[in-house]
Write a structure and sequence with these properties.
mainly beta, Lipoxygenase-1, four-stranded antiparallel β-sheet
Length: 125
């Protein structure tokens, strides 16, 4: 997996302060050992086209190797800032296959908010 894209992220406080959000992937049986991490800094404001916020892609420094049948967790952390974020829509994971093909796989639709805390957004087996 090389990246995860969230359809819509919005800072519901409306303060337009820069916030840094981190994304971590771990294996279910080793939650304290990150397989990869990425972060995005933004004000997370509503776009002109969508009140739910803009789309944001989290790119891992190195692609994370996934094994079929294993359970993984994706977790978001507000690393810098005091925001209240709203997540809407279906995130997508972008995978590079063993054959070198790039695939986008949608995850289940979510509608969740986070305030300076860690939230688990995806579990896959």
């Amino acid at each position: 997996m090389e990246s995860v894209t969230f359809a819509n992220i919005l800072d519901s406080t409306g303060l337009s302060n820069t916030t840094q959000v981190g994304l971590t992937i771990t294996q279910a049986d080793a939650r304290d050992v990150p397989l990869g991490s990425a972060s995005v800094s933004s004000e997370f404001v509503a776009s002109q086209n969508d009140w739910r916020g803009s789309s944001y892609a989290f790119f891992f420094a190195q692609a994370v190797e996934l094994t079929e049948g294993e359970l993984y967790y994706l977790e978001l952390d507000i690393e810098v800032g005091d925001s209240s974020l709203m997540l809407n829509g279906s995130p997508e994971i972008n995978i590079i296959t063993v054959d070198g093909l790039t695939l986008s796989q949608p995850l289940p639709r979510i509608m969740q908010s986070a305030r300076a805390a860690r939230i688990t957004i995806w579990k896959s087996a």
